[in-house]
Amino acid sequence: MPDLVTELGIDVLFKGTNFLRLLGGLWSALSISLIAVAISIPLGIIMGVLMTSKSRIIKAILRVYLEIIRIMPQLVLLFLMFFGTTRAFGWDISGETASVIVFALWGTAEMGDLVRGALISIPKHQYESSEALGMTSAQTYLYIIIPQTVRRLIPLSINLITRMIKTTSLVLMIGVVEVLKVAQQIIEANRMTSPNVAFGIYLTVFVLYFLACWPISLLAKYLEKKWS
Amino acid sequence: MKGCDGMDGEVIMSYLPLYGEAALLTVKLGVIGIVFAIIVGLFCSIIQYYKVPVVRRIVSVYIEISRNTPLLVQLFFIFYGLPRLGIPTDAETCGIAGLAFLGGSYMAEAFRSGLESVDKIQTESAYSLGMNRLQTMRYVILPQAMSVSIPAFVANVIFLLKETSVFSAISLMDLMFTAKDLMGMDHNTVECLFLLVSFYLLILLPISIVGTVVERRMRRAGFGN
């Protein structure tokens, strides 16, 4: 058994602080997505409410924003933010900042669409019935509309969070030192002593991402079932 | 020297063939990968629908793994990790395999929701008409299930084509690779990014429009509801 571990290059994990370094790399990717999530949830809620407003102009502007963000691969957005702004406006932003901005813009758009979907899914008769029961508009929202919207929204937004975590792996491509970059460094340093290190380390990264996302999607699935 | 306010038409013209070639590679790998993803997805969804023992568990483990890891990490593992075990992979095969591995689970979910939307009574009626399992699947369930899953299917196709943008990480000369390469060589950043966005729009916009139209039609048809 120890032979196999060495053969597959998994032993490199336990040399020095290699495993801790990988975890640190994972954390820098995760923290980018967590900051972006924290920004996009409130902004997305505002956007979603605005998307159901009566003003056609507001609706059209937000729709265009959503479609532009949606149609471009996130990597292209990262390139535009990282390389494009330097050239166009002379900004010298770090890869981390560019990533947070892009993920916040993207998350806001997606979250906005989820909120819009949840809001319009509440049938009109719910409003009318509560009015007929003599509820004020504040009471209607507080007791009838918001609880139903939130139940539809929470599983979907948790799914969005796992999508954002997965997408942060792309920040490697604009030079952010995250888990894949750390993996490359470890492999580079150990290639001579342990020829199969690439297998063991990339397998570890694979498992780490899975362990970061899987519990979150299980939670989303559980809540979806419980509240449906 | 070119300022940031204007783009150089000549530079754009000279880059066009390179981008065209890269776009073709993106589309080619994307289409092949998606075809395999459809096959994998169909296979998985039918296994789950018929609740085939044991295999069904393997399928759901695969779906969880595939959906909860990023394509970039999957590609690194396939491209740099697997050859160490003596499984040789060239970059193109690896890109296609990665896309099929990721897309298979998304397609499976899309098809499964379609299959589940077909009422059990349809299967029973088909059996009572003397159809066997295969005929029932082929003539009764699949056609209805397919039309229900079309919106999710189109969304998946767009998603997978967008995901091909990470192929540059395994040194495939796709649109991202070309853009980065040319930016590094000539520093015509604005022109490079402009072409990058234009070519992705050229690929993705038509499909996205088709998707919207199809979805609207589906809603109007309503399928008996």
CATH class of chain A: Mainly Alpha
H/E topology pattern of chain A: HHHHHHHHH
Uncertain segments of chain B are none
Oligomer: heterodimer
The number of distinct β-strands of chain A equals: 0
CATH superfamily of chain B: MetI-like
Q: Which CATH C-level class of chain B is it?
A: Mainly Alpha
**CATH architecture of chain B, please?**
Orthogonal Bundle
Task: Tell me the domain tally of chain B.
Answer: 1
Helix/strand order of chain B: HHHHHHHH
Give the helix tally of chain B: 8
**Biggest interface, residues from each chain:** A-B, 41 and 39 residues
Helix-strand makeup class of chain A: mainly alpha
- Helix proportion of chain A: over 70%
| Radius of gyration of chain B using CA atoms only | 22 Å
Percent strand of chain B? under 5%
**Number of domain units of chain A:** 1
Annotate the secondary structure layout.
The complex is a heterodimer of chains A (228) and B (225).
Chain A (H helix, E strand, L loop, with lengths): L1 H6 L10 H34 L4 H16 L2 H16 L5 H26 L3 H9 L4 H31 L11 H12 L6 H31 L1
Helix pairs in contact in A: 2-5, 2-7, 2-8, 3-5, 4-5, 5-7, 6-7, 7-9, 8-9
Chain B lengths: L8 H41 L5 H13 L3 H11 L9 H27 L2 H9 L4 H31 L11 H12 L2 H33 L4
Task: Describe what this molecule looks like in 3D.
The complex is a heterodimer of chains A (228) and B (225). Chain A has 9 helices and no strands. By secondary structure, chain A is mainly α. In chain A, α4 (74-89) packs across α5 and α5 packs across α7. In chain A, 79% of the residues lie in helices and 0% in strands. Chain A has a single domain (2-227), classed as MetI-like fold (Orthogonal Bundle), CATH 1.10.3720.10. Chain B has one domain (9-218): MetI-like (MetI-like fold). Chain B contains 8 helices and no strands. Chains A and B meet through α4, α7, α8 and α9 of A and α2, α3, α6, α7 and α8 of B.
